[in-house]
């Protein structure tokens, strides 16, 4: 019994119901790649793609950021909105928002820049959570099988009716 099973038993005050084992997926039986292997390949491939595209287009990215910062400065109050929307979009698609984070204080001042970046980052995290929860849950559950089942059971014990 794993430590997670012990935690689940203590919190729920009863024995856990056996979850579907991860080996029950049909791809594994047919000799295909496992969900974990596909996930690793997708992660490494995606990271290589982002890094490669960033290197290839670094001049255009720098030019766009310079242009965008100039426009935000000219737009006045609407610059805050544009800045926040771009920051949120970059965070949702998992592109580095560090350049925008660092320039927020310079463009808007320390306190307004911090508030703007905090709000945009929170909005991006919320949107990313909703995408993961409602659009990608089935794919992740298929790949992680037993762990997702156990997490669902733990969550249902502590927050019944919420899942």
Protein traits:
flat; mainly alpha; 163 residues
What does this structure look like?
With 163 residues, this protein is mostly helical. The chain has one domain. It has helices at 3-12, 26-29, 35-56, 58-75, 77-92, 98-108, 110-135, 137-144, 146-158. The longest helix is centred in the last third of the chain and has 26 residues, at 110-135. It is flat. Mean pLDDT is 77; it is low at 20-29.
Secondary structure topology:
Elements: H1 3-12, H2 26-29, H3 35-56, H4 58-75, H5 77-92, H6 98-108, H7 110-135, H8 137-144, H9 146-158
Please provide the count of β strands: 0
Mean pLDDT: 77
Could you say which overall geometry the principal axes of the C-alpha atoms support?
A: flat
How many separate structural domains?
Answer: 1
Please tally the helical runs, counting DSSP H or I stretches of 4 or more residues: 9
Helix content, binned percent: over 70%
Structural class designation: mainly alpha
Please provide a brief summary of the model.
The protein has about 160 residues and is mostly helical.
